[in-house]
Amino acid sequence: MSYRNDVYAKAIEIRKKDIKALKDYYEQGLETLRQSDPHFKELENGIATAGSAAAVAAFSGDEAELLKMQTLCQKLNAEKQKILDNAGLKKPEVLCTLCADTFYKNGGLCDCIKKIAKQITFDDLSSSLPLENSTFDNFSLQFYSDKATEGGVVPRKRAENILAKCKEFVEDFPKNSRSLLFMGEAGLGKTHLSLAIVSEIIKKGYGVVYGSAQSLFSAAEKEHFLFNSSSEQEDALLSCDLLVIDDLGTEFLSSYTSSLFYNIVNSRLLNKKPTIINTNLDFDQLENRYTARITSRFIGEYEMKQFVGLDIRQQKALK
Ligand SMILES: [Zn+2]
Questions:
Q1: What mean pLDDT is predicted for residues 144-164?
Q2: How many angstroms does the Cα of residue 114 sit away from the middle of ligand 1?
Q3: How far is the CA of 99 from the centre of ligand 1 (A)?
Q4: How far is the CA of 198 from the centre of ligand 1 (A)?
Q5: Overall fold of domain 126-318
Q6: Are the C-beta atoms of residues 173 and 206 closer than 8 Å to each other?
Q7: Which of 62, 131, 270, 302 is the Cys-Cys partner for 199 at CB 3.0 to 4.6 Å?
Q8: What residues sit around ligand 1, an ion, with C-beta below 5 angstroms?
Q9: What is the pTM of this model?
């Protein structure tokens, strides 16, 4: 996966800031000690003086004096270290042991920078939906009727079953998480549950891209035509750990987005990367719009869940 240079530049800036923040924290701690503990300041001065004296002794070949000054330095340093330990102040270690925070390795960028660049692209692509509003805990089953429909489905049972499936998806991620297709009319909780999954998976430290089909596809399309090649946004859609496509069926379909969508479904399955798709379309409508080569993938490889019930947003509004 390769990124435009500006994404890498941004990633390096972020890393530099993190490193500086750690250094600043340490320096501030030292400054506080100097001001609150005169002995600490004396020790620092003593170490500097003994160090210079040791250098002079080494230069003039005075071995006895050199040894004396070195011993003094060690003693003062040990005392200083004790104060630092008591204050819980530790000299910052490198953030990345692969590149020792130089950002480069073997003539290329280090993985630590690539990882941040990847996250920047995921964030750029993803909608800024308020994830905290949609959790498993505030997914309310009371909006689903416990009376069977004409088709013999009990909406609340169905919702319970889907909720359990979603929790399982998070639990086993990414090993046993089969891709999910959420079907059903608007306002039945498809987006709510997808976002609940998204925030749990982000908490686990995985790279997640989520958004409406319209926003995800058009972002990739724009970049594709701007740079006349496969873009990093397209790569992000293919390679992120979890992709959530909301509202499939409402997007503008071009020949580019059609083939992009097929490519997303297909290569993510091949690479065992889970995808969650929400749609208000029924199966026939999906097949008409995206052809059987897509729907046959859904049948064969996706776990399809049909949401049943009455529009929850309408129910809440009527209360
Ligand atoms: Zn590194």
A1: 91
A2: 9
A3: 4
A4: 27
A5: Rossmann fold (3.40.50)
A6: yes
A7: 131
A8: 96, 98-99, 110, 112
A9: 0.73
